[in-house]
């Protein structure tokens, strides 16, 4: 997989850290999180450095996540938009709206962009 050029890494990190949505970049082959923004660290209740390197299924623990992330690379490349849950460091499940799409910044097919929008407030209202 091609790494983000060092001269652009600060720009991309700042752009992703400015988002309200949690963002992960996942290695499509190894299915490990290779980047996490600050919103994702807040969502899961731990430091960004603790998220990077984790298998995606350690944080995305819903049954539908196991089905999705266990599928073939071709199926993953199709992406998904669904409701799911993320496991916080304290063991609480956070309901999220999840989108997974191919991430073209790196080699084609090498990474997936995962965006997670916290739906806790909406769920508590409902």
Please, could you describe this protein's structure?
- The protein has 126 residues and is of the alpha+beta class.
- 37% of the residues lie in helices and 29% in strands.
- 27% of the residues are buried.
- The model has no long low-confidence stretch (mean pLDDT 87).
Summarize the biggest pleated sheet.
Answer: 5 strands, antiparallel
Q: Helix fraction? A: 25-40%
Largest sheet strand order: 2-1-5-4-3
Query: What value does the Rg take, in angstroms?
Result: 14 Å
- How much of the sequence lies in strands comes to 25-35%
Q: Report the mean per-residue pLDDT as an integer.
A: 87
What's the total helix number? 7
Structural class: alpha+beta
Quick summary of this structure?
37% of the residues lie in helices and 29% in strands. The protein is of the alpha+beta class and 126 residues long. Strand 4 (93-102) and strand 5 (111-118) form a beta hairpin.
Index terms:
alpha+beta; 126 residues; 29% strand
Describe the protein's topology.
Blueprint: H1 6-17, E1 22-27, E2 33-36, H2 38-44, H3 48-51, H4 56-59, H5 63-69, H6 73-78, E3 80-87, E4 93-102, E5 111-118, H7 120-125
Antiparallel strand pairs: 1-2, 1-5, 3-4, 4-5
């Amino acid at each position: 997989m091609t790494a983000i050029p060092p001269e652009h890494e600060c720009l991309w990190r700042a752009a992703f850290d400015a988002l309200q949505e949690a963002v992960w970049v996942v290695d499509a082959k190894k299915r490990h999180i290779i980047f996490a923004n600050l919103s994702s660290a807040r969502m899961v209740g731990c430091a960004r450095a603790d998220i990077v390197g984790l298998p995606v299924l350690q944080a995305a623990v819903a049954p539908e996540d196991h089905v999705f992330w266990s599928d073939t690379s071709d199926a993953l490349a199709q992406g998904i938009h669904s409701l799911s849950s993320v496991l916080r460091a304290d063991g609480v499940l956070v309901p999220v709206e999840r989108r997974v799409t191919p991430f073209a910044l790196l080699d084609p097919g090498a990474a997936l962009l995962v965006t997670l929008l916290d739906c806790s407030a909406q769920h508590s209202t409902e």
